[in-house]
Amino acid sequence: MTPPVLSVVIPMYNEQEVLPLLIARLRPLLDGAGLDYEVVAVDDGSSDATAPMLLLACREWAELRVVRLRRNSGHQAALTAGLHRARGEYVASIDADLQDPPEKILDMLALARAESLDIVYGVRDDRTTDTAFKRHTAQVYYLLMRRLVGKKVPADAGDFRLLSRAAVEALRAMPERQPVYRLLVPWLGFPSGEVTYRREARAAGSTKYPLSKMIKLAVDSVTNFSAAPLRLATWSGLLSFFACFVLGCYSVVRFAMGETVSGWTSLFTAILFLGGVQLLCLGLLGEYMGRLYTEIKGRPTYIVGYDSAEAGQVVAR
Ligand code: UDP
Ligand code: MG
Questions:
Q1: Which of 75, 93, 212 to mutate to test the pocket of ligand 1 (most atoms within 8 A of CB)?
Q2: ipTM given for this complex
Q3: What is the pTM (predicted TM-score) of this model?
Q4: Whose CA is closest to 11, among 61, 37, 45?
């Protein structure tokens, strides 16, 4: 079987409201593009009607492949499952909620082919449809990530992008258990381009990224890419040592002058400060140790319960 030119990977978690709209927009677009394609819909352990709806759709849409994960493993894990299964020469990833216009996938493909690029990012030039909270947290996130990973990380590029087979294989070769693709992809260093687009409001349903999942993504991003927070421990240790040294000299000088520094407040402050610094450092160490533990256990990022291309086989990675 020759691989298709284009694979479109779509992670979905409880997207029953948006699924009919997505199919109605994506299918005519891809059918009309005049190329061989496949759509890999990854159902990230949805508890609503997403799974049965996908199975129904895949009966009469031959190009649709449905992969169902046994449990909700998160957006990045669902993306991993999709990237591992996509067979196309180029692999696009897009959210299910139509915030990213599927039409742009064809622009990305045209750009990648015309300029022999391995990566084409979808970059949002307008996020006014996102909530103010989302925009501000995103701003801080991208600012931090550009400092940690380098300037290569395009600001406001989420997980809407196109990858060549070479880039997908490079990602697949990474044994990471908690990948953050918006950082790993620029880190690869392949030739890349951008297609800008306007971020629409979610077509239906509600966000599947509550604050807890946003925080997890942020912590994963920092700890995956940098040991800088560990160095923070050294710096705060040095700083508190310096503060204690100054304070110590001060009391010795006062003592030499025949006085003693009175009161418990300064003592208490110093104790609390040191306690705080130590707890912070322990917490940081714990965070990295937890990560090491997860990587060493080597548990799969996701477990596939069903794959329409393998008809019911249980496959774990
Ligand atoms: N998603 C997923 N698993 C999750 C959470 C989200 O597969 O645990 C999918 C979701 O269905 C959507 C994409 O990830 O296709 C982005 O989620 P969403 O649009 O809710 O995030 P937001 O745009 O609000 O940041
Ligand atoms: Mg969305």
A1: 75
A2: 0.97
A3: 0.83
A4: 45
